[in-house]
Amino acid sequence: MWPSLIAKAKSGGLDVIDTYVFWNIHEPQQGQFDFSGRRDIVKFIKEVQAHGLYVCLRIGPFIQGEWSYGGLPFWLHNVKGIVFRTDNEPFKYHMKRYAQMIVKLMKSEKLYASQGGPIILSQIENEYGMIARAFRQDGKSYVKWAAEMAVELETGVPWVMCKQDDAPDTVINACNGRKCGETFKGPNSPNKPAIWTENWTSFYQTYGEEPLIRSAEDIAFQVALFIAKNGSFVNYYMYHGGTNFGRNASQFVITSYYDQAPLDEYGLLRQPKWGHLKELHAAVKLCEKPLLSGLQTTISLGKLQTAFVFGKKANLCAALLVNQDECEATVQFRNSSYLLSPKSISVLPDCKNVAFNTAKVNAQYSTRTREPRQKLSSSHMWEEFTENVPSFSETLILSESLLEHMNTTQDTSDYLWQTTRFQQPEGAQSVLKVNHLGHVLHGFVNGKFIGSTHGTFKAHRFLLEKNVSLNNGTNNIALLSVMVGLPNSGAHLERRAVGSRSVKIWNGKHSLYFNNYSWGYQVGLQGEKFHVYTENGAAKVQWRKYRDSKSQPLTWYKAAFDTPEGTDPVALNLGSMGKGEAWVNGQSIGRYWVSFHTSKGNPSQIWYHIPRSFLKPSSNLLVILEEEREGNPLGVTIDTVSVTEVCGHVSSSHPSPVISQRRTGHNRKKQRHLKHQYDKRPKVQLQCPNGRKISKVLFASFGTPNGNCWSYSVGSCHSPKSLAVIQKACLNKSRCSVPVWSKTFGGDSCPHAVKSLLVHAQCS
């Protein structure tokens, strides 16, 4: 997917691709390095270079990024005497060794700009300012050491530390957040540029929470404000987030990552975010020479209105007119009057004409749909294999106390069985109580499932309390502790603990405590041990025909499907399932947790991306591990994802599209001619994705239509020719452009109203 994603980023007006370097995938075992396949960072950077873009390499090596263990390999946890991210010799030794290895690799391929390569900026550490207080003076010493260590690697390009206001002189302090145009205190030295390392286009989503939606207008406003205040580098986090395949997501983070970014999880354009930012980038680049002149003045235009003016010559002048008010404002600038929309910035590349306004969206809106292409609804399509519940005598790891989860599994599995047994003189109804610190706990007594409970992203401590029937004689308790990702942030990550804190049984008269009993442990599930999600592994266990009724959880399901025709992205609809993990042809497409609903009653994620590179033309092996009894594989479908509808809503007060204004050639005559000549007419521009054309106009109104692209109706002023004009201009075309102009629609029946054009069309 890399070439397509990079090309779309470039088309969106980006100059640089930022990427983290994931220590735990490149050195999963100490001294064993892996740069193969999807881990080939050199190939990725060269692909970026081939597209004519630069690279910012965020080495970390702690990266956070909602990535398992913040990118640190778990073996680091076992190094004697180690304390992460402080003035600790074992940690500094391994951090330096890793950073040296990555830099040496980049140098060997001549990838730094100082060598003629694309890497123009590198990052050391990541948001250390968030935890520095926990380490006091040792933290300050560590920051100084990290900066010196990085600079001594002699890459020939600058180093940056994000969220580090006191970054040493040798590195650049940078801002992370949604509003760095307002919150950033600025460089801590006059010889450093203003850098925004993370402009959050949305936010990561955790199970049980709704997605955070950030508007294109707000993002554009903050970027323009940062540039107005001499910002020189803005990185969108994320421009494309993608998918947390396998077990790479950190605790409680869903498998889909930043799906609301300008390029969604599947690599499709999320409109209008992608298009509006593309217009902003084009408008800023029209201001290149004045912005780079180094001459800036600030002029107050009102209580909450400001002009940031760059350059001083009449033929080399650009201005950004900022309105911080929630109401529109009319301002005077250079003997001209400008109406500024609420909370907006107007970009004037020549200090006269408005090329772009952050609050006025010319870009189309798009609707993404999933279409079922294959239903796996027949019981004959499925086979199943149910996990055994281990007893104490079957376990190999024994302890006289409760063990911590991560220390025991060493991140080889999400699952840890803990079992014990005890004698009961007589059968009785009792209550089992387990205080647990972690993510999920399933309980079994004498091999029978008694119930489950779980924590949340914000509350990890919970109580499993269930009525149980005990046998006369020996009784077995089996608890399955489940992690939904390793922690990824905060001080003293190496000290984090997950697991049962106390276990007791109350029989109505007495309590029996098990904390200091003999416990047996089993790391992982049988299906994981045999790799039943692969063709070879599936042959190692006894599968049986699917049965509709389930008395026990922890069932593996197996089916086959054919790859949908075409090039649209493919997604697995797991809306009928509960919680677990899914594999396609041996590749894990991530954890799922459909049964954990948000406060609005919705699953946090239903569809799970299957890259087409994971697929064969036919007979793809699908294996699903379902932890809960209620999961129903007969509801699973193989879907394709596409943009099926587009909509434009532009008023006559909008600036005309910036892209058509940009100087495309190097002909000086053309440049002089186009320099201040703008097409004054705004336009609705619609475009269907590749291979599709506008097949139907669902709504069209020129005049004063009510609502927006999601909910609309004809207003008090409406041209009766609206539909016919749009159909003629757009039907059976992949793209069309219609001026918001009365003459286009045969006249003006309401001359005193501000007109707009709203068009909603179907792509087929």
TrEMBL record:
Signal peptide (from-to): none
Family in the record: Belongs to the glycosyl hydrolase 35 family.
Composition skew (Basic residues), residue ranges: 663-675
Enzyme class: hydrolase
Coiled-coil spans in chain: none
Enzyme Commission number: 3.2.1.23
One Pfam assignment: GHD
Protein localization: Secreted, Extracellular space, Apoplast
InterPro entries, per database record: BetaGal_gal-bd (IPR048913), Galactose-bd-like_sf (IPR008979), GH (IPR017853), GHD (IPR041392), Gly_Hdrlase_35_cat (IPR031330), Glyco_hydro_35_CS (IPR019801), Glycoside_Hdrlase_35 (IPR001944), Lectin_gal-bd_dom (IPR000922)
Name this protein carries in UniProt: Beta-galactosidase
Domain SUEL-type lectin: 678-764
Major location (coarse): secreted
Annotated stretches, region: Disordered: 652-681
Domain of life: Eukaryota
Catalytic activity: Hydrolysis of terminal non-reducing beta-D-galactose residues in beta-D-galactosides
